[in-house]
Amino acid sequence: MTTIDQQRLARVAEAAYQIRMGVLEQGEAQGEGYVGQALGIADVLAAAYCDKLRYRPEEPEWDGRDRFLLSIGHYALALYAALAAGGVIPREELLTYAADDSRLPMSGMATYTPGMEISGGSLGHGLGQAVGMALGLRVQGRGDQLVYNLLSDGELNEGSTWEAAMSANHFRLGNLIAIVDLNGLQADGRTETVLNNEPQQDRWAAFGWQVQRIDGNDLAAVLTAFDVAAANAKVDGAPQVILCDTKLACGVPILESKEKLHFLRVAAEEWPVAKEQLTAGYQGQEK
Ligand SMILES: Cc1ncc(C[n+]2csc(CCOP(=O)(O)OP(=O)(O)O)c2C)c(N)n1
Ligand SMILES: [Mg+2]
């Protein structure tokens, strides 16, 4: 495994901390939300928005940008926190999460939020949209721009995801990178109980994809996987997938131990504790 430069690692770790804190602030403002999965995916989003993605914070619709598609609309607060960390939206706006007239609705909507590429409430459509965008960019002679789609293990139960996976290799979309959050949970229970979708590596490989599987909360591994994917990406090559095993509520012990982690309702007095625990963990890591 390549070694990641320590300064780079520290910079992205700080971003991941900021994203997690932004998630907690949004949760606290509403008293509830899809907080567990957002904390789990924070390292991946920090690597994307504070290291790898090409975009202009002040010009979210810049034509030359890489595309990052969030098909899991309920993860929106994680993306809002990443957009704040990346300078696309003001950090204080996070406090309006899911409020009436906010640009940050509870489920991600492209028409409301700068930097939100697609609306994602109906699961299982992001990869198909990513295939279309990757194909479109290549037709326009801009196949060097990468299209990422962050999807969930619940979305692997949708047939449309596998139709898209099949077509991505058929069209040799080497500019397409899927990232799957394998957090082991979905709305009705554990993924392995609801509808087991392992072995994941073999399934994607059988569809013609280049596969990496990593600990999605090991930031050095996440950065390395993004580097490898970007280096492998080539017009007319195989599409790639990064399978990320993540931990729900990662970094916040008081929330990690909760039972109903798909949608968290947290008592008012627990939010400050959650924030303290996050900061203590981050400071401990720095030493
Ligand atoms: C097409 C579709 N079917 C069902 C739902 C209802 N739904 C909302 S979130 C969710 C769970 C999906 O699994 P995952 O994203 O892995 O859940 P998490 O890890 O966030 O708990 C479901 C079934 C939906 N939004 N869209
Ligand atoms: Mg899940």
Structure, described:
With 287 residues, the chain is of the alpha/beta class. Helix content is 44%, strand content 13%. The chain has eleven helices and nine strands. It has a five-stranded parallel sheet with strand order 2-3-4-8-7, sandwiched between helices. The relative contact order is 0.17. The mean pLDDT is 96. The site of thiamine diphosphate has 15 residues, from strand 5.
Detail the topology: elements first, then pairings.
Elements (H helix, E strand, L loop, with lengths): L5 H25 L1 E2 L1 H6 L1 H11 L14 E4 L5 H10 L40 H14 L7 E6 L6 H12 L5 E7 L2 E2 L2 E2 H5 L4 H7 L3 E6 L3 H14 L7 E6 L7 H4 L7 E2 L4 H17 L1
The structure holds thiamine diphosphate and magnesium ion.
In CATH terms, the superfamily is: Thiamin diphosphate (ThDP)-binding fold, Pyr/PP domains
Distance between the termini: 24 Å
Determine the number of helices (DSSP H or I, runs of at least 4 residues).
11
Ligand names: thiamine diphosphate, magnesium ion
Short overview:
The protein is of the alpha/beta class. The chain is built from eleven helices and nine strands. Helix 1 runs antiparallel to helix 11 (270-286).
Give descriptors for this structure.
13% strand; two-stranded antiparallel ribbon; binds thiamine diphosphate; binds magnesium ion
